[in-house]
Amino acid sequence: MTDTPYLEQNLTLDEYQAIIKLMGRKPNALELALFGVMWSEHCGYKNSRAELKKFPTKGPQVLQGPGENAGVVDLGDGWALAFKMESHNHPSAIEPYQGAATGVGGIIRDIFAMGARPIASLNSLRFGDLSLPKTRHLLRGVVAGIGGYGNCLGVPTVGGEVFFHPSFNGNPLVNAMSLGLLKSQRLFKGQAAGLGNVVMVVGARTGRDGIKGASFASEELSESDPDKRPNVQVGDPFMEKLLLEATLEILDNDLVVGLQDLGAAGLTSSAAEMASRAGTGLVMDLEKVPLRELGLAPWEIMLSESQERMLLVVEPEKTEAIARIFDKWDLKAAAIGEVTGDGDFVLRLNGEELSRVPAAYLTDKAPVYIRDRKEPAYYQEKKKADLSLVNKYADYGELLTRLLSSPNLGSLAWVYEQYDSMVGLNTVIRPGGDAALLRIPESAKGIAIAVDCDSRKVYLDPYLGAAAAVAEAALNVAVTGARPLAITNCLNFGNPEDPEIYWQFVKATDGLAAAAAALDTPVTGGNVSFYNEWNGAAIFPTPTIGLVGLLENLNDRLTLDFKNQGDLVYLLGETLEELGASEAHYLLSGQDEGPVPSLDLAKVKALCRFLEEAAKRRLLKSAHDVSNGGLAVALTEGAMAGDFGLVLQWTGTVTPGATFFGESQGRAVVSFTPTKEKDFLSLAAQFSLTVTKLGQVGGQDLNLTYNDATLIAPLTQLKKAWAEALTTLAAL
Amino acid sequence: MKAAVIVFPGSNCDQDCVRSFKAVTGQTAALVWHKEANLPNYDLVILPGGFAHGDYLRCGAIARFSPVLAEVKRLADRGSLILGICNGFQILCEARLLPGALLRNHCLKYLCQDVFLRVETSQSPFTSLYKKGQIIRIPISHGEGSYSVSPKELDKLNSEDRIAFRYALADGTVTPLAAPNGSLDGIAGILSRKRNILGLMPHPERLAEIELGGTDGRPLLEAAFSAMGGAA
Lengths: 732, 232
Hints:
The complex is a heterodimer of chains A (about 725) and B (about 230). Chain A is an alpha+beta fold and about 725 residues long. In chain A, strand 17, helix 21 (about 500-520) and strand 18 (about 525-530) form a beta-alpha-beta unit. Chain A contains 27 helices and 28 strands. Chain A has a 7-stranded mixed beta sheet. A 7-stranded mixed beta sheet of chain A has the order 23-25-22-26-24-27-28, with helices on both faces. In chain A, helix 10 crosses helix 13 (about 320-330) and helix 20 packs parallel to helix 21 (about 500-520). The radius of gyration of chain A is 26 Å and the shape is globular. Helices cover about 35% and strands about 25% of the residues of chain A. Chain B has about 230 residues and is an alpha/beta fold. Chain B has one domain: Class I glutamine amidotransferase (GATase) domain (Rossmann fold, 3-Layer(aba) Sandwich). Chain B is built from 5 helices and 11 strands. Chain B has a 9-stranded mixed beta sheet, sandwiched between helices. In chain B, strands 5-8 form a two-stranded antiparallel ribbon. In chain B, helix 1 links the parallel strand 1 and strand 2. The longest helix of chain B has 12 residues, at about 15-25. The termini of chain B are close together. Classes of the chains: A alpha+beta (about 725), B alpha/beta (about 230). The interface between A and B is medium-sized, with 32 and 30 residues.
């Protein structure tokens, strides 16, 4: 060993000394390697743990909060929903196809580790400037990788979001979310309980791929990164499909005490976490681990991130039955260790003890850093923007067309048509709506799911932006008629050792916590991804929210498309003079600036509850949340989806630019049969909502008159611009 | 009437086929593992979509060696109905139960979208409840669905009225533009000479319930069911 063995393990001198103090001796090289990955940011959350405690995590709907493989909420009728989101940013930056594919594979394993059958995936993606060849390479690779894995596995990819901005040049974000259904009495945990129980590793063999991926994910990216390609794992969705079916089969036969997927930090993390959660110890004989090639050193076996593996804890008499089931699926199931009572995590090779560390030291004793924080100068500066460009634009119809043909507002069909969104026969609302909607087998209920985050708004105001992401996701789910239940998240930030980045993180988590509490959507888990930087420049902070909601009766569902000529169109929520942080201002100025639109969480909650009630009473024909691009874009989306024009005329006190293109929060566009107007208004009054009558569905054009300003554009022209936006740019 | 859905390692529409068949006909189809070498005389056997053996080597190339395939052939010879959907169609081609091959989509991308099909014949136990020329909307979901066959075999398919479906525009026009995968002659599904085997790339089971957005796939399952003496 060198004098500074900790450096090779990405540990600091302080951390090394803390380890020596804990252990009462110097750790050997293998032990230090275990600490290195377990105390990495990726596994140990040492920079984020303190802040994550702010999140509300409890509620009658929560069956399992943070700390397990995935969160679980109650759906009633004996059903529960497991869901979680995770980032795979760094691997995707280096090797987009495999990085994204294994991201999907990993999060799906987390779901079936809870005993749930995965029923859907979503994703949230960020890419740089689409005019750069590198961005297009990443986009194509990531999308193909997500599809390649999920399609083969037979888990539909039902929704997601994509945002392009130069701050993601070089460091894209790939956040994958997965959901699974389980009977609520069959909730499995990642616990190594029961003295003398056998530890088995099942699925793929262990190879050299992805070694130290967790540490790599805790560093910044730069030009020299092709060298890091060996850190990226390679996925085999066919293997995962076999593993999934075999695992669910052994769970059905009640053969397992605990199980855990092997993800970041491989065997080390899974085994140590299982032991630590159960308060037990664990001994493993490394010569028994099935290897892909000969000659792997013990540390390589322990740190390998080979995909498609699971760790099981089983009663000794059941190992044979398990091996039989795995054999049917042509998979390996090897007994590699035993649960012990001393709390130690022990590794042996051919009987010789190589290392001994108390499991809890690895999982719970990672240092917790309260980092310095400093408000960045840009925070106040950017608020003072001149936002007059939109109002000065001569032709609003043309501006709308330009917006729809920009990558952030154009149709995402090019992306989601590469995903199988229907396999499983549960997808009721396919990609392209506000939220995906799934049916639950043998039940009248539905599950609505949305992922959301406006990275620009978070950058300009981390508190408001993060709160807005929760509010927006809740509204996305509410406009289907569902009640928002709970959230998961992926917190993507730059280097936390930079006080300005840490300030963003603190503010954003404050905002997230406040919104989750106000909207009654507890946080059931999530993931933190720091060090998202490229050549020293940080990404826009992106706390992605994944939100699930419950629709009591699928027949009450609402969709965004206008349904009938002559239906009345109303806007719910208040429109203020808020052009800051808008897509329209960015399109015209190229600047990310201006105050982020204000957010009244109580009003958002009232709007959500109103939509749920209105859906139940079958008052509405359509509902669509107003977000990026503002009212004009929301109206166009409903018009294009239903293939109806709109004739709208209304008045107000804000400028036409802010009315058409401002992004005031907490708004939705609804339509209904004229005879329902009275009922609609009285229900809206009950919820104290601000309503604006806009006009009627009809004609071939988008024909809007606000005060004396007009916005007129043929629907065919808008549709063409929208449909071709991404296809044209991506195909360059 | 007895129906079965074959499960290959990597099949992922097997449960969907059972579920859809049940929703349409009320009958439960049996799931049969690909290693089975003795099958009862099923009246209808469905080879479902998915990625049998991971689609490694070539779609369907490994699955055709599964023990169950000999039984599928035996049942086909005795006149049972064999329905291959998507990966099932690819396997039927590899097993030479149907002519031709499915190549990579011309756009080189996986595609999952609703397409319009023109029903080219109602003279089969699968298409008897459609009208010839009828336009139906059914989804595709595949990366290798571009049908290809020799000119001689294509003539035969045409002259023997064995092309079941062609990709079409919404108005029924068959043009190369309408086939998203670049399929030869717009072919989406074909019949065997005895007309008791149908292979098609689109997924009728995915649009057989109104909740899922359409029911144009329903008559195909209903027709096969009633052709074999099933009554709902």
